[in-house]
Amino acid sequence: MNYFITGGTGFIGTHLTNLLQELHPGCNVYNLDIVEPGTPLPSVKDYKPALRKGQKLASTFIRCDVRKPIVLERVNVTADDVIFNFAAVHRTPGHPDYAYFETNVLGAENVTAFAEEYGIKKIIFTSSIAPYGAAEELKEETTIPTPNTPYGISKLVAEKIHMIWQAKNQAERQLTIVRPGVVFGKGENGNFTRLYWGIRGGKFIYPGRRIL
Fold it and tell me: Does pTM top 0.90 for this prediction?
């Protein structure tokens, strides 16, 4: 059995790889990414890899661009394998509008086509809270998505592409979509980490769009 993690070099993919190896020692974990573990990301200024210096990611790295059809050579793909689709352009602002659609939408199409080709029945897709749209009101799973950024729109379209894949064979295919609001933890190097260091330095930052 194989676990395929698109975007596996990133923060979530790195921690998931370690968890899979802990829960299923000796399992085959394949990291499908355009960035090798431990190396900088050219498109993101001051990017810090999730791996610490000297650490190695316990997965097999395969250079893969999800914007193109996924072809894996010398890998025995089976219908019992599991796909974790984390590959995305997600930092916003920071990219031209088309980049979000190019990676997030084409990526969803190519990942589901890969699953279709090999009869893979299980996909876990990480979306975002962005499809709900930027607002102060409480969001629930029943809230109608009203994305108002290219990133949020592209993620909602990607969700629908995955849902169409699952709907073609509801009896056998299992799809899990998650919409995390904030992702943080060891090695995250994002907003919560910057907020923490700001508070430690005696600076207070109020995250929000209006003053109460």
Answer: no
Q: Amino acid identity of 169?
A: N
The C-alpha atoms of residue 83 and residue 7 are separated, in whole angstroms, by: 11
- In this structure, what are the phi and psi dihedrals at residue 201, rounded to the nearest 5 degrees? -90, 10
Residue 25 has phi, psi (to 5 degrees) of: -55, 135
The whole-angstrom separation of Cα 119 and Cα 77 is 9
Contact present, 97 and 152 (Cβ < 8 Å): no
d(CA 53, CA 19): 20
Q: Domains of the chain: which residue ranges? A: 2-181, 184-212
pLDDT classification of 173: cutoffs 50, 70, 90: very high
Helix (H) or strand (E) holding 20: helix 11-23
In tens, the pLDDT along 23-64 reads 998 889 999 999 887 666 655 555 555 655 556 677 999 999
User: Residue 18 phi/psi, 5° resolution?
Assistant: -60, -40
For residue 145, CA distances in Å to 50, 54, 66, 91 come to 31, 42, 25, 20
pLDDT in tens, 128-158: 999 999 888 888 888 999 999 999 999 999 9
Angle 35-153-168 from CA coordinates, rounded to 5° = 85
- What is the identity of the amino acid at 62? I
CATH code for residues 2-181: 3.40.50.720
